[in-house]
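Protein data:
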Amino acid sequence: MANRRAFLKSVAAAVAVGGVRPVLHGAQSQAPATAAGIRKSTLISMLPRGQSYADRFALARASGFEAVEMQTITKEEEATEIRDAAKTAGLRIHSVMNSDHWRLPLSSSDPEVVTGSVKGMETSLRNAALWGADTVLLVPAVVDAKTSYQDAWTRSQRVIRERLLPMAQDLKVTIAIEEVWNKFLLSPIEFARYVDDFGSPYVRAYFDVGNVVFYGFPQDWIRTLGPRIVKLHLKDFQLDRRSGQFTWKNLGEGDIDWPEVRRALADIKYAGYATTELSGPTGDAAVYLKDVSARVDRFLAGEKPVAS
């Protein structure tokens, strides 16, 4: 009960002052910024699954993307193939999306589940080191009927601090916490506080522009999180707020105010990667990816990213 009171008191204090503690440093990315200040990336799942990694990476590069975000790879031979293919294509692997945090949440009360989750993150961190990526995306906890919000907070922070952060520091790979539909980190103030609690430059925020639309406005979250944001996901959807139903849309065709999002990113001087997280192509992959890439260009220019 004391821990719960302390937790609620800290959140209330953050609300009262309208902010949270500053992070330890404000660098956005180890990569140099382009003229637009943000670099374009796509998620590996948006590239045709039936093709080799070499062909997929070449297609992404030809479509105008500078980088790709990979998912966790457990086979060493496959991981080596990915590294070599990216180098040949001139495509940066800038981030790894950890694969086991939903199936095996760090917030579980079952030690075996937590151990499995830790092993998955360790694999992701090793992937990142092999590929030259500076970040691993982590969904830190899942609140459900068996896991309270308080337990999700304290359990996940303890595991990250004791079992993951030392390895991340040794490899110089950042653990980037993402907000997603897991009933956790439901406000930008809480998100910022969660990150700041670690007091480490190796725990930052991976902000998904689309994931907060159900209960907030991405531009507000961006300005609150500020320099804590180390990576971005770009997605869009149309939301019926009465029914809670939504439809996935291409960039610029949903409810997000993209010009305002761009202004918010400029306000915090964000200069890292923005990764498109949309459905994969159903027709001509080259045409689809070039269109998505062009939409990102329009977004970066401060325009609504609709088709030309």
In short: Strands lie at 39-43, 67-71, 92-97, 135-138, 174-178, 203-208, 229-234, 236-240, 245-249, 273-276. The two ends are 57 Å apart (CA to CA).
